[in-house]
Amino acid sequence: MTVRINPSILSADFANIERELTRIDNADFVHVDVMDNHFVPNLTFGLQMVSRIKATSPVPLDVHLMISDQDRWAPGYAELGAESVTLHVEATSDPVGTAARIRAIGSRVGIALKPGTPFATIEDIAHHFDQILVMTVEPGFGGQAFMKDQMATVRDVAAFRSKRGTDWWIQVDGGVDPTTIEFAAEAGADTFVAGSAVYGTDNPAFAIENLRKIARDHSHHEEPHV
Ligand code: DX5
Ligand code: ZN
User: Fold this and answer.
1) Which top CATH class is 4-217?
2) Using an 8 Å Cβ cutoff, are 203 and 24 in contact?
């Protein structure tokens, strides 16, 4: 199974974004947490800043929208060139329509679940998305503890994926480090966001490779489809 490591620049030095992006050029994507101080109690960056990050980043962008009124704002992130845009189901009134707009622009589209939101909420619409993000902290801040009980939701998503034969990426975000990544990989996640576990070290590129190796060692090796 392909394993992806997406460092979150929420834990990077915002005054040196260009340098911080070059330190993670071995990542699969850079995870960009967009927060509006409304959907979550924290504020980061919007379209203009993310557009500059896109122009500077050596790797594709994985935008995680933690803002209200996502139907209005999300397509703009696809338009600026973000390769993946993830919506929170709790902040959209038209997830299917907005997903279609993002895909029409040419980006992948994800749907995110806060810890209190069960997979059943999106089961009927999940096939409109390329990625399911299971939050392993309450969204808003880096450096929080990994919620291991969220592995039940990851297992639900993984079971549904193998039953339906879809090719979703299953992403986990929050508290992922060299210890907790094992639980997420074993539960069936393949795409791992890590902020403090990458940028909190002296050598982010090494931290990425270390996480990748541990995740691979704990991933399921699926039988090829016949
Ligand atoms: C939290 C963000 C995460 C955060 C992860 O709301 O969505 O992406 O940056 O940071 P760590 O890995 O430190 O928990
Ligand atoms: Zn995130």
Assistant:
1) alpha beta
2) no
